[in-house]
Amino acid sequence: CMTVQLLNDPYDHRGEKKPFVCSCEADCDGALTMEILQLLSGGKPTALQDVCYYDDEKVVFANCGSSASWFAKHSDHAKENLKEVHLIPHSFGEAGGAATQFTFAPGTYTYARLFRMDGVYKMATACVEVQPLEREELHNYSWSRPTAVAKGIDADRFSKVFGCNHMHCVVGDLRAELTEFCRLLGIEQLKV
């Protein structure tokens, strides 16, 4: 998980670098979605997250490692982001290695997911506000995973539109860009 996180970050032990899109669990459509978001955003880091919990007020996204540490503060300085990241025992058991735990910085995020239905690509999209979350609140959801709490999502529509448990995000509002991307490629866009 830590390796995947660092690949998605805009820095490494040598300094600044271009984020290298990397999903997990052999999720090729996920990696493709992340690459699309990265290109449309001008090169910003992207993340893969799971739907951890949802109700009428919020959707909680968390994943064990495909979230760049950059999301902790959105800072151009690695030290600012990394001081918010905690290495803790992984939730996958004693031999699971280290998990990187942090909360996503608040702000406007675009979530998207490219998926296939009957062999035809569709793309689900949503623009949300990620809310501030204290580290201790992670006990309510998933203690060992980077976590974002999004408000402003119609949970019922969200559960019907997004065709996968993996969601992908980037900072900013890319609704117009994704609409044009889908139009150009003839992909049906499902908006939340």
3D architecture notes:
This protein has 192 residues and is α+β, with helices and mostly antiparallel strands. The chain starts with a helix and ends with a strand. The mean pLDDT is 91.
Radius of gyration in whole Å, from Cα? Answer: 16 Å
The secondary-structure element order is: HEEHEEHEEEEEHEHE
Q: How many DSSP helices? A: 5
Kindly report how far apart the N and C termini lie.
29 Å
Structural class by helix and strand composition? alpha+beta
- Flag low-confidence runs: none
Helical percent range? 10-25%
Characteristic terms for this protein:
192 residues, alpha+beta, six-stranded antiparallel β-barrel, 11 strands, 22% helix
Compact overview of the structure:
By secondary structure, the protein is α+β, with helices and mostly antiparallel strands. Helices cover 22% and strands 33% of the residues.
What secondary-structure arrangement, pairings included, does this model have?
Layout: H1 2-8, E1 11-12, E2 15-16, H2 28-40, E3 47-54, E4 58-62, H3 78-82, E5 86-89, E6 98-101, E7 107-117, E8 120-131, E9 147-151, H4 155-161, E10 166-171, H5 175-185, E11 188-191
Parallel strand pairs: 8-11
Antiparallel strand pairs: 1-2, 3-4, 3-10, 4-9, 5-6, 7-8, 7-10, 8-9
